[in-house]
Amino acid sequence: MRIGIDYSLQYGYYVVMYIDIVPNRNSPPCLLLRESYRMESKVYKRTLLNISHWPPSLIESFRTLLQGGIAVSSLEDCFAIVRSRAHGHVAAVLGTLRRLQVEPLLASRPCRQRDLVAAMIAARILQPSSKLALSRELGEWSASTTLGERLGVESASEEELYAALDWLGERQASIEDQLAKKHLSNGVLVLYDITSTYFEGRTCPLARYGHSRDGKKDKLQIVFGLLCTGEGIPVAVEVFEGNTKDSMTVANQIQKLRQRFSLERVVFVGDRGMLTEARLREDVRPVEGLDWITALTAPQVRKLAEDQAFQPSLFDEQDLAEIQSPDYPGERLVVCYNPFLEGKRAQTRRELLNAAEKELAKIAAATQRAKRPLRGQDRIGVRVGKVLGRFKMEKHFEYAITENSFTYKRNEERIQEEARLDGIYILRTSVAKERLASEKVVESYKRLSTVERAFRSLKSVDLKVRPIHHRLVGRVRAHVFLCMLAYYVEWHMRKALAPILFDDDDPETAKTLRKSVVSPAQRSPRAQQKARRKITEEGMPVQSFQSVLKTLAGIVSNRLQAKDPSIPAFEKITQPNPLQQRALDLLRVPL
Does residue 23 register a pLDDT over 70? Predict the structure, then answer.
């Protein structure tokens, strides 16, 4: 027999809370507070607590509340909310993590270390922090979310989290192998790019001075390379010393793809600084079954133009053409012309020329001033070299330096010569035309932008891999790998949540709107409407990924305690609003 029902729509089905009266032979009946719901063809139920010993007046008040009535003051006096913790965003991240079966990737059987690593992955998405801050956040008394409670790691200490990070680092190769088996297959497109991030401290052997992509020239740094599928799903990451050149990381990745991942045929996509002529000759071409796609450098493009391998006028009526050159035997060269890129390059050159000219004018004026004029060919030359080096405009100026003067002018002929090739870039590939048409070659190379998007998320937008404070080599590698796993979860969350994010949730339509694969990417009409109106088709506000997490955090787990100490406390989760419910439905996760 049931007394009282409270309906709340969750995950696409109804959850029913009721008071169940269970006969107990010759003893008084047992009164249980229960929840039940139907999923597909099965009915599930669970008991929240036994209320047989409650006073009849309290049971009657509670029954009224469950039926949708107004709770009487006596019921309010009988219960108190003793604890509230944000829960919705935790449920979203952990639910996605489990739906992707990340935990079995970490370890085939449940263990303490696996739970701690799962907590660190989830926390990296929810709120990146140090291990000390995370141990406080997981703690029973200091937690503001249900993360520690849901994973059973409320007692985790800072030392235990570091030990779990070391445990993860030891399993990195095995986990990457499983991810590769899940997402890569023979003949698949593999994207590879590297970035750097700055380092706090000076004791880690990996930390070196190098080309800083973060603009932190005074900081030591590390370099790490990311292997992704053609869609941008991260599969593997490797950390290198901070002064490692891009091209010197290629051999490790090829060995990883062929030997560890056992891929006999791969199309490897890397940028022009990665797949240099030396790397192609020594590391790529000797590997049977390994095809590649990359781009020519500006000097190589200029040489082809000088050799009349192609004419810029070729693109008066088209923006893509395939050519051959004896300088690149056995390769396909795809020449592309992008008017948008042409305008961008021209504007950049114009701004750099103006900025450099402004600084050079200051040097010229310094040599002519009345008081303490700049003198000495060496001193003048040093200042000129710094300016031209900073703006990379030395080839576009002609100048003369004497002991007491400095003159300069623009090299208009050289500037015009470079401007003729604005908007033109050339891709080179070993893939046969029967396997990959010219348009597909361009599309494949452009997919490197998905790796750049991953780096933005890893470094600054969401996961904040930087700055790195670890000192041990193994922990630095494990920290970067942990962030990669967090991005793996986030990538799938973003894809599922695309209808309520500013992201384009109709990419196929967007592709059909492009005049050519060379032209800039277009957003679908649906995405443009979302960006313009800031409202989804369902009338809900469009949000960023972080805003969705904050909105879900509004779903709170409350702990209710009766004033009567003999009545056990129980948890009650607040009912999601329509936007929160929509996010949970898209993610296909329960609370």
Answer: yes
